[in-house]
Design brief:
Oligomer: single chain
Structural class: alpha/beta
Number of strands: 15
Radius of gyration: 21 Å
Low-confidence stretches: none
Shape: globular
CATH architecture of the largest domain: 3-Layer(aba) Sandwich
Helix content: 25-40%
CATH class of the largest domain: Alpha Beta
Distance between the termini: 39 Å
Bound molecules: pyridoxal-5'-phosphate
Number of helices: 14
Number of domains: 2
Order of helices and strands: HHEEEHHEHEHHEHEHEEEHHEEHEEEHH
Strand order of the largest sheet: 4-10-9-8-7-5-6
Amino acid sequence: MGFVGGRSKSEIIDSFARYVSPAKAKFFSMVGIDFVPARREGVWYWDLDGRRLMDCHCNGGVFNLGHRHPEVVSTLREAVEELDIGNHHLISEQRARLAEKLAEVMPGDISRTVFGVGGGEAIDFAIKLARGHTGKKKIVYARGGYHGHTGFALAAGDEKYKRPFEPLAPGFVEVPFGNAEALERAVDSETAAVLFETIPATLGMPLPPDDFYKRVREICDEKDCLMMVDEVQTGLGRTGRMWGIEHYKVVPDVIITAKGLSGGIYPISATCFKDGLDDFMSENPFIHVSTFGGAEIGCAVALKVLEITSNESFMNNVRKMASLLSNELEKMKEEFDFLEEIRQKGLFIGIKMVEEGFGPLLSISCYHNGILAVYANNDTSVMQFLPPLIISQEHTDYISENLRNALEMTSQRRDMVEMIRAML
Ligand SMILES: Cc1ncc(COP(=O)(O)O)c(C=O)c1O
């Protein structure tokens, strides 16, 4: 061992501020959070000073299986004994195995995969796919969503994250999320694709109307463009089904997955699509390459993640825990007048409160009550709540008790909301 705890907390924070990000260090100091992740195991994160937090942020799903899942860790250990990154120009046994498994767990006839390293890269490729296949340019996406920090993904993101970096790629048109009429008006014969997070996390997890995706599918078919869903957060069992879109009984043309596919251990992402959409690559199969995308060690890890996640008893546990939490959260909603709505699909949960600023206040209160959870950046009236998918009833009991205490603290400090709003 020897990675954790070689220095004092204040030394680490000072070094981070000096060499990594003074702005982040200042932000955390301003909100009174001096958490330096040290030991991590299962649902828990330990601060360097020994205090533990239940990880209900999970880095947007990276830690769906908890931290350092033993089977994932031992797969990585075995993989490094035999493999390395691989060479992305060549045929790969590991990439083929993982792509075969992805085809098995994907809905409908989605059977092909191009690998990447992170979610943004996988979104970028999806947009290349849409433009390359259709020969059209326009990409329609939801206002206030988030698809990543890279080129095309950023262009499909919220205004405030892209303005300083303009000019971005042209051809991107935003619509309000969940509004089929607005979508119908925006999509035309020039549209290459419609791209939505199945439930947009950064926008505060607004659930679309039940028939929304059926309409999206129809509109895409009518206008001959691709329907693409970003399942970077909603995928891999998070909503109680393998893919969030399955709740809406619609098969898109493209599904993007990342975060949790890594098992929290080795970065990997995948753009999965229907056969034939990459026809434009047949002349030059090397027109899109990614040196580290689908690294062979990462493929072994991701295959293990899919084996665990596609197990029926795993998914039943997600549904059972979701139902226990749903009961508790509904009770809390009755107890606290500033709770407006519980937005929930499985263990993908948004706690919507009455005003902007309540999300960060509740996140801070959670931190003081043994829970790590983060607010939605593009709607600060919401706190995102993503417990690991491996929780048991003992953990939901912990959540009920400590989240209730955090809500109590939020209630007592609600006069701080205005100050927090001014800070953001
Ligand atoms: C829904 C969604 N899509 C895409 C991304 C981008 O993923 P990455 O940060 O791995 O590039 C994120 C990251 O938070 C995300 O939440």
